[in-house]
Amino acid sequence: MATSTLPKAVAFLRVAPQDADKITAAQEKLFAQYAERHGFDLRHIEFESESTVNVSRIGQVIGEHKAQHFLVLSMENVTTHAVIADALEQAITLGSGAEIHEIETEEPNSR
Cα(64)–Cα(42) distance, rounded to whole angstroms? Predict the structure, then answer.
């Protein structure tokens, strides 16, 4: 079995339980298309209930898949709480060394 030499990416999606079935497939497709356009090997999409943000789990997922890129629809989709957003960005960029991509804006987040 051949191993991909493409840069690895993981994605994160917060999902409201009532929307899970109808929205999830479309959003998975957005992540896959973005990864393909940018030459990434999309290894995993982590789904989380809209009521939680598990910063340590996100770091684990990035580490488990040795991802250099972390894809989100937007950081606002992850959390609107400023302190949690800052902690998450630091954990991802400094702790895990991954680059954040907000796919709705098509630009990497470089705070």
Answer: 13
Give the burial class of 20: count Cβ atoms within 10 A of its Cβ; 0-12 exposed, 13-18 middle, 19 or more buried.
middle
Distance (Å, rounded) from C-alpha 86 to C-alpha 111?
Answer: 10
Name the residue with higher pLDDT: 16 or 26: 26
DSSP state of 47: E
List the beta bridge partners of residue 15. Answer: 49
Side chain identity, residue 15: V
Give the predicted TM-score (pTM) of the model.
0.84
Sign for the CA dihedral angle at 15, 57, 84, 8 comes to negative
Residues whose CB is less than 8 angstroms from the CB of residue 10 and which lie 6 or more positions away in sequence, other chains included: 42, 43, 44, 45, 46, 61, 62, 65, 67, 69, 70, 71, 98
| Per-residue pLDDT reduced to its tens digit, 56-103 | 888 899 999 999 999 999 888 888 888 888 888 988 999 889 999 999
